[in-house]
UniProtKB/TrEMBL annotation:
<keyword id="KW-0378">Hydrolase</keyword>
<dbReference type="InterPro" id="IPR029052">
    <property type="entry name" value="Metallo-depent_PP-like"/>
</dbReference>
<dbReference type="InterPro" id="IPR050126">
    <property type="entry name" value="Ap4A_hydrolase"/>
</dbReference>
<dbReference type="GO" id="GO:0004081">
    <property type="term" value="F:bis(5'-nucleosyl)-tetraphosphatase (asymmetrical) activity"/>
</dbReference>
<feature type="domain" description="Calcineurin-like phosphoesterase">
    <location>
        <begin position="2"/>
        <end position="132"/>
    </location>
</feature>
<dbReference type="GO" id="GO:0016791">
    <property type="term" value="F:phosphatase activity"/>
</dbReference>
<dbReference type="InterPro" id="IPR004843">
    <property type="entry name" value="Calcineurin-like_PHP"/>
</dbReference>
<dbReference type="GO" id="GO:0005737">
    <property type="term" value="C:cytoplasm"/>
</dbReference>
<dbReference type="Pfam" id="PF00149">
    <property type="entry name" value="Metallophos"/>
</dbReference>
<protein>
    <submittedName>
        <fullName>Bis(5'-nucleosyl)-tetraphosphatase prpE [asymmetrical]</fullName>
        <ecNumber>3.6.1.17</ecNumber>
    </submittedName>
</protein>
<dbReference type="InterPro" id="IPR006186">
    <property type="entry name" value="Ser/Thr-sp_prot-phosphatase"/>
</dbReference>
Length: 318
């Protein structure tokens, strides 16, 4: 009996609204469900972008500390660690480029004059597992690839990063670097020559994130892109550009993840595929799926709250 919750990105008010909608209350200093057997599993990305990042971390960590939640690492928590950690020869593991500073700005600003508190949360980030699995389900921030997960099980310590592993993980081209990138940021494929697009932050890219639960041999560039992009060709993708042609098939156990900034009304991608990131930081939805062990997921178990200014204005009017 688990409520999976997607990327929060510092929207603590929406998180509290969603938790209350799911039946959680705060009789003490942390949220707990009225049914003691029901808990939350957060799929990562608690920081950056939103107005109440410290409050979000307080809610999530207090639930984890008191046994009413499990929290996974997202790419934003991983990026924050790399942004903070210094290299032995100077600089930082995640370079302090303008685009990286902008991404972390709201987090850093909200922890201004709270350095000790911020560094304590960075230490907590290292306790977050990168994935979670039971007999009934799997959960990860961005992508579940069995070969990659099996490799990470041999490298990580209780599915978690250590200081040495964080340093090793940023070395481009290493197996650990590629495994972390894929697990926390998803699979990508290079676009045909001459094609590119601007992402949600205005960064020009020539690679697209792909639907890793679809058979790439059956897909076109437009169909396999997670983000709907009109300028992508309706031609079969060049399979030679994929490092792995494996995909998450319909026979595997349900998998829950976030990361992809989906738009529109929250819906399942397939009966065993549940993406929970519907762009709460871009006036979308904060989404949960209430799981009770079913093998076939259903849209009726999705619960969400809107962060749209239009919806908020309508609710105030009503």
């Amino acid at each position: 009996m688990i409520d999976f919750i997607g990327d929060i990105h510092g929207h603590a008010d929406k998180l509290e609204e969603l938790l209350q909608k799911l039946g959680y209350s705060k009789p003490n200093n942390f949220y707990v469900h009225s049914n003691p057997n029901r808990t939350v599993l957060f799929v990562g990305d608690y920081i950056d972008r939103g107005p109440k990042i410290r409050e979000t971390l307080e809610i999530v960590k207090s639930m984890v500390d008191n046994g009413s939640a499990i929290a996974l690492m997202g790419n934003h928590e991983y990026n924050a660690l790399c942004f903070h950690y210094q290299e032995t020869d100077g600089g930082h593991l995640r370079k302090h480029l303008i685009k990286n500073i902008v991404q972390h700005y709201k987090t850093l600003k909200q922890f201004q004059n709270r350095q000790v508190e911020y560094e304590a949360y960075l230490e907590w980030f290292k306790t977050l597992p990168l994935f979670y699995e039971t007999k009934e389900f799997r959960a990860v921030h961005a992508c579940w690839d069995e070969k990659t997960i099996d490799f990470l099980k041999t490298k990580l310590v209780n599915n978690r990063l250590t200081d040495d592993l964080i340093i090793e993980s940023v070395k481009k081209g290493t197996e650990l670097n590629e495994a972390i990138e894929q697990t926390l940021k998803g699979k990508e494929i290079e676009l045909p020559q001459g094609l590119s697009f601007d992402d949600k932050d205005g960064t020009n890219r020539n690679e697209i994130r792909i639907k890793w639960w679809e058979d790439p041999a059956e897909m076109t560039y437009r169909a396999i892109s997670v983000e709907p992009l009109e300028n992508l060709p309706e031609t079969k993708i060049d399979l030679s550009l994929l490092k792995s042609k494996d995909f998450y098939n319909e026979e595997q156990k349900p998998v829950f993840f976030g990361h992809y900034w989906l738009k529109g009304k929250p819906l399942l991608k397939r009966e065993n595929i549940c993406c929970l990131d519907y762009s709460v930081a871009k006036e979308g939805y904060l989404v949960a799926y209430s799981f009770d062990g079913e093998h076939h997921l259903t849209d009726s178990n999705l619960t969400f709250v809107s962060n749209s200014k239009k919806d908020l204005a309508f609710s105030r009017k009503v």
